[in-house]
Amino acid sequence: MLHLVDTAATVEITWNQHNFQPILMIKIFALTTRGLEAVCASEMTSLPGTTVTETAYRRVATVYEGSPTSLLTLRTIDDLYLDAAVWTGVGHTRDILAAMKTWSAEIDLNRAAQICAGIRLIRRQPLFSVTASFVGKRNYNADDIKNAVSEGVGSAYPWTYTLDDGEADFNIRIFIEHETAYVGVRLGKVPLHERSYKQQQRAGSLKPPVAAAMLQLAEVSPGHTLLDPCCGVGTILIEGALMGAIAAGGDLDAEAVTAAHANVNTAGVNVDLQTWDARRLPIPDQSMDRIVTNLPWGRQIIVDEPLETFYWDVCAEMERVLAHGGRIAVLTSTPQLLHFKQLRQERAIEISLFGQNPTIALYKSR
Fold this sequence. Notes:
Elements: H1 7-10, E1 13-15, E2 22-31, H2 37-45, E3 50-56, E4 59-66, H3 68-71, E5 79-88, H4 96-106, H5 110-117, E6 127-134, H6 142-156, E7 160-161, E8 170-177, E9 180-186, H7 208-217, E10 225-228, H8 235-242, E11 246-251, H9 254-267, E12 271-275, E13 288-294, H10 307-321, E14 322-332, E15 343-350, E16 359-365
Helix pairs in contact: 4-6, 7-8
């Protein structure tokens, strides 16, 4: 059986008198795309009861008081973990692996297991997986960390280790920054970046949390008209529609538009999709409040003319259809090719994605 200690000894619980959902005070950390930490922190603090305690490389730590289920609604993060332990003195040599095994056996996982069991089904004989990542060079790799941690946890808890994260009831995450390891237990069954609607994928398809972050940076609000002229499989448009925007978009690739239709149907949202050339948009002047797009980088998606010419034409069209006071957010690895005659660039944020360092460029009409 799942070993859980007495609730009163491990977690502070009050009750919401309106819906009888437990309200917990817990420490959590979110992992996100490098460069989007501030966006992630902003979204988390918009959730009532959340206080950000630290923002670091790819990680945002918070104290949260509320129903844990509400945390699973966050859109700009890759994944969310209940804070289980912090290890210091995590060196770069292999002898630290023995220490990790010992430390893993000492982690109190009961509270995290109890919180997870309160929001989703857990097997009586749970399976657990381990994921690990670190910054910089070390004399061991992620698999070495997984082996050490799985042996330590397996010696202390009646849980069974599995290599299949999708099969596991609990995922234990080891995130190492320099000589400090942050240890967490995933709150949800699957990573938050794995959206259930995204059944169809194509080359260059955008990560949903990055799409959601771009929408937040563009200050998309319910009722805004939203355009993605190079929509691919529709990730930006679906995330926008889920926010309440009136979303429309298209792509020159008819197969991509077909995939976008499938994803839109799975998501259960309304999005106007067309097959079109973004250089000649069938859209009236000044009709779009927000334009958010991931322009082709000339790598995974190849255009039929020099990239500079393509960008020049698409930028002219986006500027033409943007409403007065509107905003544009563009993700590209070649921001120097963006050209707008009347728009003012507000910010440029470099992120890490697909092994590249593209930029989210933000513009506003004058």
